Amino acid sequence: MKKIAYHTLGCKLNFAETSAIGRELRGRGFENAKSGEQADICIINTCSVTDMADKKCRQAIHKFASKYPDAFVIVTGCYAQLKPEEVSDIQGVDMVVGSNAKFEIADILQKIEIAGQARNDKKEQETFNKINVVKTSQILDFHLVYSADDRTRYFLKVQDGCDYYCTYCTIPFARGKSRNSNIISTLQVVKEAIDNGAKEIVLTGINIGDFGKSTNETFFDLIKEIDKISADVRYRISSIEPNLLTDEMIEFVAHSQRFTPHFHIPLQSGSDKVLALMKRRYNTQLFLDKTLKIKSLMPDAFIGVDVMVGMRGETDELFAETLNFLQKTPFSQLHVFTYSERAGTKALDIQPIIPQKERKRRSRILHELSEKCLADFYASQKGKTAPVLWENGKDKTVMYGFTDNYVKISAPYNKDLINTFQKIVI
């Protein structure tokens, strides 16, 4: 049997896709390479959300090509889709597979038959293309997949692609247009995950609030149907655009027994002028209204917020607006991203350019604010009773889990509690 080593970078969507590719390959007789074991094939699923992400992908490719010198190295994912020639030129890369062919890797390997032979047999090499990448407009397929993490938390991909084209972002070029499967098919996969042992399912996608655009349904329709499934399981909604998070969704989650009081909402900037430069589809007042609505119905809800610093055009005054806005917004934690120039994006036409030193300074300020707010949120939860789902881990002396409102809990390891819910006092 052929041994395969996998490496995934980036978002939870990538992890779900790698997991699905792995299941397909194992179904065809391939095996996962164990730690310390030489792999015959390496599959690296990449990210390209920033220049730093690209750099990490290159480092990972070099590392795996060096670690497994005789392996057939396949690079897929967003970096492969956006910069296929650059990836192809990296020493040790045998094949570059774009977004539309990602789920054809099993078929590709079957056609090659023996990857190691393809590497050394020039005649065999002529039977396949090193670069399997199509134009963004041709990325049309949708694959409903999920990843499992020790049979506890599953990440379910319910949507892919994005039609927003924010001025700083390359994801629409890497992932294509917004698309999804229908609700009936999605429910079948949810039930499959539950049958396989899932106790928590995280609904994820590139722009999940856009679910239903290609099937004449809505994301609200989807979560209402999922909530009807009778099972010992809970659900989380991953990052959702504030303009797509409706008041009726918030009210629904507040009264649901299975959807958790945990929201992740991208803000990107607390300045309306910068939001306009970014071509975001909301303003700060709408964002504030959504967070206040959540807290009015679910005072203990966890609210994670994405913020970008150093965007072109973000003057000192506009960054100050962001800081002031955040100080009156009831969030629990910030996910701070530093802007990086991306080829082909409209943001490259915006002035002024913020120096790297200043971008780092702003990032430090927001990280400090985030740490303070997270500490305050955790302190507010002390002494409260909450359900925690215990997860498996490598350390067999301590176990960890999360409450429904995303407070991380630790306790002495007890194997009988792994993958079960327990009510505890925080």
Observed structural traits:
Transcription Regulator spoIIAA, 4-stranded mixed β-sheet, 4 domains, Rossmann fold, alpha/beta, 426 residues, single chain
Tell me what the structure shows.
The chain is α/β, with parallel strands linked by helices. It has four domains: 3-137, 3-Layer(aba) Sandwich (Rossmann fold); 152-260, Transcription Regulator spoIIAA (2-Layer Sandwich), CATH 3.30.750; 263-359, Transcription Regulator spoIIAA (2-Layer Sandwich), CATH 3.30.750.200; 385-425. The protein is 36% helix and 21% strand. Helix 9 runs parallel beside helix 10 (219-227) and helix 11 runs parallel beside helix 13. The longest helix is centred in the C-terminal third of the chain and has 26 residues, at 356-381. 43% of the residues are buried.
SSE blueprint:
Elements: E1 3-8, H1 12-26, E2 31-32, E3 41-46, H2 51-67, E4 72-77, H3 78-82, H4 84-88, E5 93-97, H5 105-112, H6 115-120, H7 122-125, E6 131-132, E7 146-149, E8 153-157, H8 171-175, H9 183-195, E9 200-204, H10 219-227, E10 234-237, H11 247-255, E11 262-268, H12 272-278, H13 284-297, E12 302-309, H14 316-327, E13 333-338, H15 356-381, E14 385-391, E15 398-403, E16 408-412, E17 421-425
Parallel strand pairs: 1-2, 1-3, 3-4, 4-5, 5-6, 8-9, 9-10, 11-12, 12-13
Antiparallel strand pairs: 7-8, 14-15, 14-17, 15-16
Helix pairs in contact: 9-10, 11-13
Terminus-to-terminus distance: 48 Å
| Total E-strand runs | 17
SS element count, helices:
15
The CATH top-level class label of the largest domain: Alpha Beta
How much of the polypeptide forms β-strand, as a percent range? 15-25%
Name the CATH superfamily classification of the largest domain.
Methylthiotransferase, N-terminal domain
Give the mean pLDDT: 93
Shape: globular
| Amount of helix | 25-40%
Using only C-alpha atoms, the radius of gyration works out to: 22 Å
Largest sheet: 6 strands, parallel
Could you give the order of strands across the largest sheet?
A: 2-1-3-4-5-6
Q: Would you give the CATH topology of the largest domain?
A: Rossmann fold
CATH architecture of the largest domain: 3-Layer(aba) Sandwich
Multimerization state: single chain
Structurally, the number of domains stands at 4
> What structural class is derived from the secondary structure elements?
alpha/beta
Low-confidence stretches: none
